[in-house]
Fold:
Amino acid sequence: MPEKNIDFGKFGARGIKGSDAVARKLDELAGGIATPVTAKRGWMARLHYLTKSPQTLKAAQDAGLTVTHRTLKAWLDGKRRPSKTNLERIDQAYRTVRRHNVARHLLRRLNRDGRGTRVEIHPLNQSQVPQPLQRVVEYRTMNVRRWDRIVGSWAAGDHQSLDAAWQDTIVDLGSQWGQYEYVTNVGFAA
Amino acid sequence: MSDFDAIDSLLDAVGPQAQLPPCHVRRELREQARLSKAQVARALGVSPSTLSGWETGRDPAGEIRTKYAYLLDGLNTKLTTETETETETETAPAAEQPVTSGTAATVTPLSSLDLRQDEDGDDVELLVAPEPCVLCGRPAGQRVAGFAQHLTPADCQPTATGAPAAPPAGQPTAHTPKAPLRTPPPAHATKRSKSPARHAFQEPSGPLDLIRETVQSALTEHRGDADAATAALLKRAIPDAMRLLDETRKGARYDVIAHPWIPDILKKQTARGADQIWEARPKWTRHQLPPGRHQVTALDINGAYLSALKTHLPLGQLEHSTGPAHDRRRSGVHLITPPEWEHQAVLPNPIGQRDDPGPLWVTEPTLRLLLRLSGPKHQLCTPPQIHESYTSGATENLLEKFRIALKDARDTAIEQDDTVTLEYVKAMYSKFVSTMGQSNYNRELYRPDWMHLIRSQAFANLWLKALKAHHEGLTVVRAMGTDELHIIGDWRRVFTEGRAVTEVKVKDTYTATNTAAEHTGEGE
Structure:
């Protein structure tokens, strides 16, 4: 892709990858447990979520929560508390399972029977770029009709394919799409 | 001889000038016909600014004057025709002032039916067969400027239906004997502009129709059951408000940016917590009443949040800046050190009941209120000290059409005693404001900054009402929340009672004495 940025931020532009902004927004829309995993209330809630049914437990184990039933029971009974690495694993497993569970509904809402969702793209921040190097980058909106690849790769936690999917989407912005590879924010509702 | 011809033609040209209606009528006529200044100016061959001049006090002269008079005349006839055809079908549709006796009473039957140019330039025709007069409906023998009518007021005795003949008081120029060529009195113009049914130029269905249609369909769906319809409408108030917003922003200058980047101070710290913005909600009760027993009236400001939709809203993404300068064309949130407030005994602190000292994040309406109070007119406090700001270019008109649509719907509902629409409108604006931040009930709009600004504007409006009462010599006892103001004294000379958004309604009256702590002092 010839429009891609090679050395982003060399002259002081600030922003995040468009696909990261999309993933962040999708996470926000997916919601979930807000209490941090380090608090007892937080990790307990996550464990309850992950052990609600044999299916979710299986999904959690697939997502990397590889502990014995005995340990799980001890955690849930409050006899022991998970170590730091295990807390991270719990959080990771929770995020994966949650995304997987929510993806189906989110996808339906975003596709809206083919009508799609309006996406706002807020351009990168050029306030630290020297004046002669600043370019006019406008705020843009577009309607995204097909979210399958985006939501699918987000649910799978696959950054690369999410990035590719998003890039294929913003190509519709026209010849300037490369200016929107990095953004300050991507906004949409579901 | 050619010299004399030239002189003759010059003398002909000197004749009476074409009459023009008064300036405001000129404008009204043009606006009623939905013609832009540019369109009219092009047709007349002048510049739009010249036309503005003619509509605000200047008069054209010469040939162009005749052209302009012809245009206004034509518009007038066209518009009047549209009005009159509604009521009178048979008669020639127009309304002409009865030409008073001064000039036209001298009309004598002439031998021919030729057009006769009288001294005022009116075309008076004599009719062989009398036609009904446009003013009183009885047979008249003359036709002036194409409309059959009596020439003396004595002959013409308008019946009750002949309303146009009643000369309105405020328009003396149009009733002089030198009535404009075919210009009906401007009373028609004003009457027309108020009439709801406009047939001449079909009005496109607007946001008001959207509200009306929604209510109608809900009522039909529930077979006229008002309670069920209201419940159903309240449920869909938020998406409907968003649709109304989209409708009112059609063809507008600015986009509603719904998901900008939000600075951390506007983000909630925890799921249920608040962000760092101080909205300056007033919660103030007067410490000491004046001695004696008092009748306290609790007033309620109607539609406080609806009125507060008119505020300076930042359009785009908020940008950070530091420094004490305040740019009036931008709006947002500011970190300020509030000034000392020395009038706590008689007036609430404009930044509300703040316990923590030190700098705080306030919104644009609060800052503007403080700047205004520190200004030369009021001098109630020192100017606030601005440390940091997150602002963006602002406009006051972003939600203006939205607000006016809701206000009109509310006014109509009150007039017609239509509780369903009233409840629906109320739910629309209040839920719109409360969910425009980061709410799961409205994901279309993520503008916590707007939510804070609109709320603060409501509080600032209440504060200014308290100040107004104080200046008028009333005793303000309490200012609470968005719309509650307790006052001692004859408040009716300051505020009007009613249900419109500019009026107040009485919530409660009670007596309070200096010593009794019945109502006073409990809000501390």
Summary: Chain B has a mean pLDDT of 80. The longest strand of chain B covers residues 385-395.
